């Protein structure tokens, strides 16, 4: 590590001033060659599908697509999920976390100031000085500002990466919300389907038991045999045994639906009763290809790619020297009554240039392995 501090004094630095100005003028062009190879993640998509017919805009589903089923219970479940679903709440919390990380990443672009106030009191020994001992007080309030020049764009690239990550977290929330709402709709339909199957199985059982009663009456009259009674009794038993698994499946789907909408399974019920009460929306062909670019998972992947590119830019900028400005400004006096006088002002200004020589050298030689120092 190499550190150069700028101090006051009469030094012939002005002799190298033209060379320094030319070097600083060329540095932005040199860094542009290393840091600005951005990628365009845009996809080249056709305007429409070849096999589709009709108006593409008419085929675009609405945002509240679940209202097309004309089910008040399904709409109510969707609204409850958006307000109480735990996965959606966790995704929203990740958005808040990403925003906080963005503010943290942007902090190095701003100067930092520390305030210090110190009071020191000392006494000189009379035996050490050969005379009378003296008591000295020193009061020093000061401000210590520091600022790192982001000349190579390292901190700005980190901020850009954090911003793209925050955007990706928002698309991730949309992915979670869309997946959750689709799961609620599928589970709700499975519950209704199970209720319909239970109703059909109960009707089949009632028919089988009615037929069994008739065959038993015929057996009592001597017009049917015992084999006919046994066969019909077996069919009725089969129908009766098919009902408990259907009830269990409906209960499991109902419990899963309760968790999706943020409720405890006990006390939660679905009163839809039948799939036939739903209004089936008409699906039209001609979905526009722009839907692929509107999908939140695709947009999330693009944002993550942009964040990765920004991280690569920050990693490349780390090969270059770090320029830091520090200073101290305050007051210093032996007595409080002269502390705020014009002669009590103190200041210190320092410019430091820090360079990790091993990393920079490995960059110059093409990332070749260098021997360890020491």
User: Which fold name fills CATH's third level, the topology?
Assistant: Outer membrane efflux proteins (OEP)
CATH superfamily: Outer membrane efflux proteins (OEP)
The helix-and-strand class reads alpha+beta
Poorly predicted segments: 1-39
Overall radius of gyration: 39 Å
Euclidean distance between termini CA atoms: 14 Å
Please give the oligomerization state of what you see: single chain
Q: In the CATH hierarchy, what is the architecture at level 2?
A: Up-down Bundle
Counting structural domains, the number is: 1
Largest sheet: 5 strands, antiparallel
Look at the structure and give the mean pLDDT: 80
Helix share of residues? Answer: 40-55%
How many strands in all? 5
C-alpha geometry? elongated
Molecular structure report:
The chain has 374 residues and is α+β, with helices and mostly antiparallel strands. The protein has a single domain, classed as Outer membrane efflux proteins (OEP), CATH 1.20.1600.10. Helix 2 runs antiparallel to helix 5 and helix 5 (154-221) runs antiparallel to helix 9 (296-317). The chain has 10 helices and 5 strands; from the N terminus they run βαααβαβαααααββα. The longest helix has 68 residues, at 154-221. The protein has a 5-stranded antiparallel β-sheet with strand order 1-5-4-3-2, with no helix packed on it. It has helices spanning 17-35, 72-84, 86-106, 126-129, 154-221, 226-241, 243-260, 291-294, 296-317, 357-364; strands at residues 2-5, 112-123, 135-149, 322-331, 345-355.
């Amino acid at each position: 590590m190499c550190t150069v501090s700028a101090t006051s004094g009469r030094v012939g630095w002005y002799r190298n001033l033209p060379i320094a100005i030319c070097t600083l003028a060329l540095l932005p062009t040199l860094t542009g060659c290393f840091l600005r190879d951005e990628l365009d993640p845009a996809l080249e998509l056709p305007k429409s599908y070849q096999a589709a017919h009709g108006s593409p805009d008419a085929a675009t589903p609405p945002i509240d697509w679940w209202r097309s089923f004309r089910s008040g219970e399904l709409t109510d479940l969707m609204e409850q999920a958006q307000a109480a679903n735990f996965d959606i709440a966790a995704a929203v919390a990740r958005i808040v976390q990403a925003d906080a990380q963005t503010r943290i990443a942007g902090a190095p672009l701003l100067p930092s100031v520390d305030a210090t106030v110190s009071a020191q009191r000392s006494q000189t020994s009379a035996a050490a000085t050969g005379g009378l001992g003296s008591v000295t007080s020193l009061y020093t309030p000061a401000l210590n500002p520091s600022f790192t020049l982001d000349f190579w764009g390292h901190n700005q690239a980190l901020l850009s990466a954090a911003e793209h990550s925050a955007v990706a977290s928002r698309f991730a929330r949309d992915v979670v919300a869309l997946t959750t709402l689709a799961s609620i709709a599928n589970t709700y339909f499975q519950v209704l389907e199970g209720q319909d199957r239970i109703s059909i199985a109960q009707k089949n059982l009632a028919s089988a038991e009615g037929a069994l009663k008739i065959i038993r009456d015929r057996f009592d009259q001597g017009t049917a045999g015992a084999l006919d009674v046994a066969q019909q009794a077996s069919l009725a038993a089969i129908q009766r045994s098919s009902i408990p698994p259907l009830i269990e499946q409906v209960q499991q789907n109902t419990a899963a639906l309760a968790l999706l909408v943020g409720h405890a399974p006990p006390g939660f019920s679905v009163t839809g009763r039948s799939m036939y009460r739903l209004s089936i929306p008409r699906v039209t062909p001609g979905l526009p290809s722009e839907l692929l670019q509107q999908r939140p998972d695709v947009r999330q992947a693009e944002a993550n790619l942009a964040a990765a590119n920004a991280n690569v830019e920050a990693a490349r900028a780390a090969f270059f020297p770090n320029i830091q400005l520090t200073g101290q400004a305050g007051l210093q006096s032996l007595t409080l009554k002269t502390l705020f006088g014009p002669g009590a002002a103190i200041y210190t200004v320092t410019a430091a240039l820090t360079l990790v020589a091993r990393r920079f050298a490995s960059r110059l030689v093409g990332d070749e392995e260098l021997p360890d120092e020491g």
